[in-house]
Design a protein that fits this description.
Number of domains: 2
Radius of gyration: 16 Å
CATH class of the largest domain: Alpha Beta
Order of helices and strands: HHHHHEEEHHH
Structural class: mainly alpha
Strand content: 5-15%
Number of strands: 3
CATH topology of the largest domain: minor pseudopilin epsh fold
CATH architecture of the largest domain: 3-Layer(bab) Sandwich
Length: 204
C-alpha cells in the first residue's frame, strides 16, 4: 500500500511564498486523492507491492489500457507530489545549493543563475498543467525537462533520476498568485531545500 508523504514542516512554514491554505488544499486534498486512487488502480493492476518508481518505469507491462492510464495519472500524481513536498523548506532570500550538486550545476549549465533561468523558463513555458524537472543520469550528468499532466522523467522513459521539480498545476499556486505563474516560479526558489536535492543526487 502506498502512503502519502507526511510534511516535515507546518502548513504555514512556507509563507509568504506559499500560504497555509494552498498547502492544506494541495497536500491534504489533491495529493491525498492521488494516493487513494493509486492504491485502487495498483491493486487492480497487480502492482501494489512494487516501488512506485518501478511501476512508472514499466507501465507497458500493464495490459489493460484504462488501468494503465489510471496508474500513470495517479501514480505520477503520487510520486511527483512526494518529490515536490519533500523538497520544500522555510524561505531564505539567498537560497543556493552547495556541495556536489552545486558543482555539477556549474559544470552542466555554466552557473546557478543560468540553470535557474533555464528551469524557470521550462516551468513558465509548460502549456497547461505539468512540471519542470532537474534530473540526473547514472554518471551524474544533469538534465532539464518538462512534462505534461502527471508524467515525469521516469514515466517518460529517460532512465534519469528526478532531483528537483516545480509543480505548475494551477492548484499549486492559484490561491497565492492567481494567474501569475511567472511570479510563483520566481518565488519558489526561496523555499527549495537544497540539502534534500543534494541527498537525491548522492543516492541516484
Amino acid at each position: 500500500m502506498y502512503e502519502q508523504i507526511k510534511l516535515a514542516y507546518a502548513a504555514d512554514a512556507l509563507e509568504p511564498v506559499i500560504g497555509r491554505e494552498t498547502v492544506e488544499t494541495h497536500h491534504g486534498k489533491h495529493h491525498a486523492t492521488y494516493t487513494t486512487n493509486l492504491n485502487a488502480a495498483a491493486e487492480k493492476a497487480g502492482v501494489a507491492d512494487k516501488p512506485i518508481e518501478e511501476v512508472l518505469a514499466n507501465l507497458d507491462q500493464i495490459s489493460d489500457a484504462a488501468t494503465r492510464t489510471a496508474v500513470l495519472n495517479n501514480g505520477g500524481g503520487f510520486y511527483n507530489h512526494n518529490i515536490y513536498f519533500e523538497q520544500l523548506r522555510a524561505p531564505r532570500d539567498d537560497n543556493r545549493p552547495t556541495g556536489a550538486i552545486a558543482a555539477q550545476i556549474d559544470a552542466d549549465f555554466g552557473s546557478f543563475d543560468a540553470f535557474k533561468e533555464k528551469m524557470s523558463g521550462l516551468a513558465v513555458g509548460q502549456f497547461g498543467s505539468g512540471w519542470a524537472w532537474l534530473s540526473a543520469d547514472a554518471a551524474g550528468k544533469l538534465y532539464l525537462s518538462q512534462s505534461a499532466n502527471q508524467e515525469n522523467p521516469i514515466s517518460q522513459g529517460t532512465g534519469h533520476t528526478p532531483l528537483l521539480t516545480i509543480d505548475v498545476w494551477e492548484h499549486a499556486y492559484y490561491l497565492d498568485y492567481k494567474n501569475l505563474r511567472p511570479k510563483y516560479v520566481d518565488e519558489i526558489w526561496k523555499i527549495i531545500d537544497w540539502d534534500v536535492v543534494e541527498k537525491r543526487y548522492e543516492n541516484r
